[in-house]
Amino acid sequence: MTERVAQWRARVTGVDPYVVDGLLAVGSAAVSLWSVYHDDTAWDWWVYLLALGTALPLPWRLRAPVTVLVLSCGLSAVLSVVAHSAMPQLPLYAVITLYTVADRAGERQRWTVLAVTVVANVVGTRSPNGALFSLLTSVGAFVFGCLVRELRRLAAVEAERAREAGRRAASDAARAVAEERARIAREMHDILAHAVSLMVIQAEAGPLVVRGDPERAIKVFDTIADSGRDAMVQLRRVLGVLKEDGAVPELAPQPRLAELPALAERVRRTGVRVELEVDPAGRLPADIEAAGYRIVQEALTNTVKHAEAGRIEVRVVREGTELVVLVSDDGRGVRPRPDRAAGGLSGGRGLVGIRERAAACGGRAEAGPGPEGRGFLVSARLPLGEEEGVGA
Predict the structure, then answer these.
(1) How would you class 56 by CB atoms within 10 Å of its CB: exposed for 0-12, middle for 13-18, buried for 19 or more?
(2) Where are the alpha helices (H) located in 213-244, listed in sequence order?
(3) What is d(CA 45, CA 91) in angstroms, rounded to the nearest whole number?
(4) Would the pLDDT of 258 be above 80?
(5) What are the backbone angles phi and psi of residue 41, rounded to the nearest 5°?
(6) pLDDT per residue over 138-180, tens digit each?
(7) What is the pTM of this model?
(8) Is the dihedral of CA 151, 157, 160, 165 positive or negative?
(9) Closest Cα to residue 379, out of 371, 361, 367?
């Protein structure tokens, strides 16, 4: 049933408006001519012509509603004066033109026509019953046109809202894609920067260690292999979401704080002493654990690459409703550079990634010289929320 209604509606809306208005003109002319023909008086041909003329302008009613109304009603007034008894009981042309003016004309034109119509019906009708019938017919047509006009306005408003909702949905989808690409870029940077840094440092030290300490050389190459395998596993996890073949990527958990000892052990193999304290005291949200792990990983990577440190302290503890991450070293600290702004987290992409990860969790991160200006310190505070804080 619904499909039939839709098909019928499509057929009706697809018809040329001039065809519809032409049919209305034919129907109105037929009513007027029938009234003249069945009148008791045998009227001359020009009376039939006047009756026909009341309907002739109707095909142009949508383009010039007021003009069509004036022409039709003007000829109708002449017909009423010269052959009042030949007037149709229900002047279809008057109903159509009044409806069209109410629906299509401007505000001033509409209300002017309504006022003139009411006055003409009251003054120009000979009997009270006739005046009442004419008022009901003409005002009723005008009110119906106003209702259709309002429905069309509401339909246009709803259509605009739908278009705006579509544009907003497209914008949200594009923003979500951009955010996902940024997240993937951060993940790949963290994975590759950490793994490649460890591998490069170990590979550079390998030739020297092979000659003097073969046992240590074996551990160095094992560290390189472990770092490479870990990077491959994490890259598969991140890049799995980019598959376009429709297959569902294999799900894997995000890194957690429980994996920090293994991360610290890999760094220790480079010759840097790592002191690790992880005491979150309870279950944490997965996004907070992943962000904490990545922040520590990025800070360790920066230290190994740039700090020339011999000792690194890592503390991940809960303080109230926040998870506090502190990574400090005894390296060479911050060296002024002309292309780097003072303070904050300016500089390389790694420090920017730390700030973005903290901000994504609603937290904040800072980086700069360590206590008394020695070494380098990365600190981040990640809110756990009221529920987790109460549970602690």
Answers:
(1) middle
(2) 214-239
(3) 20
(4) yes
(5) -95, 140
(6) 888 889 989 999 998 999 899 899 999 888 888 888 887 777 6
(7) 0.47
(8) negative
(9) 367
The answer to whether 145 and 103 are in contact (CB under 8 A) is yes
Question: Structure tokens of 20?
Answer: 């519809």
The widest CA-to-CA distance across the chain, in whole angstroms, is 133
DSSP 376: E
Cα separation, 271 vs 9, whole angstroms: 80
For the ranges 55-64, 123-132, 243-252, 272-281, the one whose mean pLDDT is highest: 55-64
The dihedrals phi and psi of 38, each to the nearest 5 degrees, come to -90, 10
The number of helix segments (H) and strand segments (E) in the chain equals: 12, 5
Q: Which amino acid is at 149?
A: R
For residue 307, give the DSSP letter.
I
In a 3-state reduction of DSSP, which class is residue 327? strand
> Counting Cβ atoms within 10 Å, is residue 284 exposed (0-12), middle (13-18) or buried (19+)?
buried
CB of 188 closer than 8 Å to CB of 235: yes
Question: Phi and psi dihedrals of 348, rounded to 5?
Answer: -70, 170
Residues 6+ apart with CB under 8 A from 321: 383, 384, 385, 386, 388, 389, 392
Residue 216 to residue 221: CA distance in whole angstroms: 9
- What is the spatial distance between Cα 11 and Cα 324, in angstroms, rounded to a whole number? 68
pLDDT digits (tens, 9 = 90+) for 357-384: 888 888 899 988 887 778 889 999 999 8
Both structure tokens of 337: 């550079």
